[in-house]
Amino acid sequence: MYSSDEVLQILKTLNRATSETYIMLENLLEWSNLEVGALDFELKPINVSELIEDATTVLATMIERKGIDLQVTVPDGVTICADELMLGSVLRNLTSNAIKFTHDGGQVCLRVQSDEAGACF
Length: 121
Fold this sequence. Notes:
Blueprint: H1 4-35, E1 43-47, H2 48-58, H3 60-66, E2 69-73, E3 79-83, H4 84-100, E4 107-111
Parallel strand pairs: 2-4
Antiparallel strand pairs: 1-3
Helix pairs in contact: 1-4, 2-4
């Protein structure tokens, strides 16, 4: 029999896992709509820190399960001109693969370097 604390922990884990799965499915649907031309490609300035935070939040369960030490280095205020859905999808895929192919207890580093350009056309 599980204690109240154990049940609460299990429910929190299930809630987070289902939320992360929902976000990933929603992102996959948006990406597939972009691929078939159902959505417009929209270039706009994107805060890189927020984009990375969103991607790593979706992958938090995978990171915890493998005991990965995730190191994120992003200079303050860095923006990039891109389509947010497509760039988010690419970032999630790269990060997911890095986590998947890193041994348990290993380290994944995400580093951003700014070249001070960054104009959107």
